[in-house]
Automatic annotation (TrEMBL), chains A, B, C, D, E, F:
One of its GO terms (cellular component) is apoplast. Oxalate binds at H102, E107. This is Germin-like protein. Keywords: Apoplast, Disulfide bond, Manganese, Metal-binding, Secreted, Signal. Belongs to the germin family. The lineage of its organism: Eukaryota, Viridiplantae, Streptophyta, Embryophyta, Tracheophyta. InterPro entries: Cupin_1, Germin, Germin_Mn-BS, RmlC-like_jellyroll, RmlC_Cupin_sf. Mn(2+) binds at H100, H102, E107, H146.
Amino acid sequence: MFKLLFVFAVLILSSNASVQDFCVADLKGPESPAGYSCKSVTKVTVNDFVFSGLSAAGNTSNIIKASVSPAFAAQFPGLNGLGLSAARLDLAPGGVVPFHTHPSASEVLLVVQGSITAAFVSSANTVYLKTIKKGELMVFPQGLLHFQVNAVGFNSVAYVFFSSSNPGLQITDFALFANDLSTKLVEATTFLDEAQIKKLKGVLGGTG
Amino acid sequence: MFKLLFVFAVLILSSNASVQDFCVADLKGPESPAGYSCKSVTKVTVNDFVFSGLSAAGNTSNIIKASVSPAFAAQFPGLNGLGLSAARLDLAPGGVVPFHTHPSASEVLLVVQGSITAAFVSSANTVYLKTIKKGELMVFPQGLLHFQVNAVGFNSVAYVFFSSSNPGLQITDFALFANDLSTKLVEATTFLDEAQIKKLKGVLGGTG
Amino acid sequence: MFKLLFVFAVLILSSNASVQDFCVADLKGPESPAGYSCKSVTKVTVNDFVFSGLSAAGNTSNIIKASVSPAFAAQFPGLNGLGLSAARLDLAPGGVVPFHTHPSASEVLLVVQGSITAAFVSSANTVYLKTIKKGELMVFPQGLLHFQVNAVGFNSVAYVFFSSSNPGLQITDFALFANDLSTKLVEATTFLDEAQIKKLKGVLGGTG
Amino acid sequence: MFKLLFVFAVLILSSNASVQDFCVADLKGPESPAGYSCKSVTKVTVNDFVFSGLSAAGNTSNIIKASVSPAFAAQFPGLNGLGLSAARLDLAPGGVVPFHTHPSASEVLLVVQGSITAAFVSSANTVYLKTIKKGELMVFPQGLLHFQVNAVGFNSVAYVFFSSSNPGLQITDFALFANDLSTKLVEATTFLDEAQIKKLKGVLGGTG
Amino acid sequence: MFKLLFVFAVLILSSNASVQDFCVADLKGPESPAGYSCKSVTKVTVNDFVFSGLSAAGNTSNIIKASVSPAFAAQFPGLNGLGLSAARLDLAPGGVVPFHTHPSASEVLLVVQGSITAAFVSSANTVYLKTIKKGELMVFPQGLLHFQVNAVGFNSVAYVFFSSSNPGLQITDFALFANDLSTKLVEATTFLDEAQIKKLKGVLGGTG
Amino acid sequence: MFKLLFVFAVLILSSNASVQDFCVADLKGPESPAGYSCKSVTKVTVNDFVFSGLSAAGNTSNIIKASVSPAFAAQFPGLNGLGLSAARLDLAPGGVVPFHTHPSASEVLLVVQGSITAAFVSSANTVYLKTIKKGELMVFPQGLLHFQVNAVGFNSVAYVFFSSSNPGLQITDFALFANDLSTKLVEATTFLDEAQIKKLKGVLGGTG
């Protein structure tokens, strides 16, 4: 019996040799609109499916008293093509993740320490605002502006998960002020005052 | 021969009675994540697939000297579920479509009159800026901040097309200032000065 | 200026009235292959986007010394159609989430307390096994068999996130033994011994 | 042990009560761009997932000496939303399935009796033509014109499978000649001679 | 403050270095079912997102008195993977875009000069026919046969937009008559007369 | 006339040179999450779209008295990216395809000889069981456990079709017992007895 079954096993196993259950990112191969190239299955190990980079707190010694540590496909290759990714948020007292969007993903936030006030704004300009406690979840629908603010006097920590392995991250302040877009065009397209724009360009390293 | 073929024709036609080539929006039926319910095929006419609402200029007698007229599935029911929609932009001299995003669609712009300066900003905060002339196209990838400004001293007109029948439209200024989000939270999450925020809240009808 | 801008604001807002940024599940409406029907936007509140059901530990006083608490679209309606959902795993000492699959989603696991030994098996029958500590992530590609076992002598807790708002959950033991599929057919299609099948059918409440 | 496990079983089973593994078509409910509404799970039986309508030969006593019997979601409700459907082709000697397309699906053909000459034409107007014997497969990429012709002097039978539960079927001759499109417009848009058009309109029951 | 914020900015920017907001086509790299390979972001400029090739009229000195100028991903690399593309139609008096399909895209037509009579035919062989004026839109659902005819005595111009960056284009006449498919097989699969087929093969350069 | 039309034909043909109607797998190129790289169109022939490997019976001289012969994209390159694939099942008397899943595809089964008893189990652990005769179809929704057993005293043959060109195949017995997963972990995660596990590991070549 063993012999016959062995024949069967080999047959099935070899027919499976080319099956693509996953596509661990080969960051050096060509990219396609569907993501990174796949690493050869023979080189894949369990470590491609495990990520330890979010276990330590990020550095919050900065102006926003916060940090965002990504675990997208570029950092965590096992996620490539699976429609999921993650990030860790650390918010010191007073910490803020400023208004931002993820161009191609919805997000679910899980508070694991402290408490976080978060909101998103819909296309109809309605604000959906709530303070989320440890163990609670909040969802931010795809592409909409949202922010997170520490709601307590000690460090808060959250993990966020995205519906894409490459969700993108566009922080509104950085998009408006941290590049060479002329003050005149920023003024015309945001209705902000010139002085305000120049001030933020100065702080964020923008020019023009 | 006619008789036999007629039999065949009836057979095929009846088997096709339930085929769903399209799903014209029934705006009063239940909505699903995939879009509006489908209008009964027996009530569908060619007029469901034609839209005249963008043939006239929009009203630009407003603070932005511009108008955006949508032809999304809600206005143009034949688009429902087909992954496409449109809008018309009218820009008077000095006209501006302020910084905005479409949460779930990429956009292609076609200038049909005048000339328009447009830009989008990537997640890496790079600005892709160009003045587009009549007959030229520009593409804005999904979910990224972009704007359009009239580049000439007379009316410019453009049509834009989206990769979704419900692309959404989130104008950054409106999302930040035209609702009841408290000045304090806007300040914390945008780094704008309090006076600036209160000024724009006043102009845009926001409170708090 | 206020007056003109107000006109503009009203115009944009009304054109947005029908925009579908999200589709909060109306659990009583018809379902489609894309998910639940959408609740009317006028009835949506921030509470639809927040879920507190995973903040408390699940009951692990059972044979597997573990619990799985879902936050799928049926429990957390704001997730409907957004391609994301979550669950909480509580594992007492010796606790096990037995071999199972999610028929239509990949999964990312985040350990928030303790340590968990997890593995998935590929189509080529390779085992990808690792013990995951607090703050670490592990990804389980779509549809593949996997399990989680508590790796420490105290309670471990993890949150898992899925690439679908309705990922499904098929526990192999329950699928094989907790129904009326005849012992003879289970035997023929699993190669398990009759006595083994009858024993597990007994434990799990199966018949036949 | 039984008692504890029973608690667990009930817990898991009830949490699964709302899981959507499938969406059997309720042909009387509202349709969405994603397909038919789902029949209540409590009314679903195995017969929804089985279809006997293709086991008998179709009637080939017609001008094309062939028949096409569909098993799309409208006929076979269990397919709804699963991205698959089927049809049976019966070709008497001289039988032909004329040039046609499936607007939203690719097709795989399996010959189960006889032999069939089939071809598709690419966008570059290249013809991919082959005679397929019993047990062989041929694939027709999405939306491209293709035909099937009986290659032997006795009945041939094939089953075809589609990558959509509603693939559609547009037979070019019927689209051109079996409706009220004016002869003048058909002439202008096909370069066929007026006499040829009028002849085929006559045969196929078209007017104008 | 500047120093701290600068640290933050660098951190975020570098984490974004691998984000894939877009995938400009590298026409020389390998293609995947999802489209062309992505050009390195460091080589991408705004010109990849702008296309001027449709600003001039196409040459209508041909038998159809019309021209179709594509702006698909192959011509306009910035569109790659974004689910959108475009084309320009020029129709001289009497000009016709003959019956054709796009195998994998729906289409929206915008008339920018003159007037165009257009129609599509559904799977149920119903004709949806309308004359579209300047500024009006018409949508053609995916994969269905359609045509456009100049409705006025002077040049008409339209732009069309597709729900794919590679929509394909299959002109029925060319598919049937501009290749080496034998007259006998064309006759059998279209019911056209042999003389008609030979005539059109002659005109369109077909053989056999 | 010929000359002018010829100009037109050349123009259209060349504009189509880059159109991607299909993406025949180049098994040696890089893979992406969307499938294999595309073979150059100039090297594609009709043979890429035809597969003869399923016309002969598989070898059933093995312990399961059955064989599964795949026609996935790796075996049948023309299927790549088209969302379809196939396999042939041969079941000798007493033959069984044991419990298995396809991680990323739904399946339709067509019996072409004999009779087959098949079942799938839902997430709610309900069994959908039926004996399918020649010419009948049965559908197995994505990712759910299912099996097929010969229902007659002679050879039965079926063809199955999948909603993916790479559906995967995970046979539960092989996943549990044909690798190096320790007996202790299998015991903990399946509730099977140690002796049972060791017996099946022995038969299937597993270790540990």
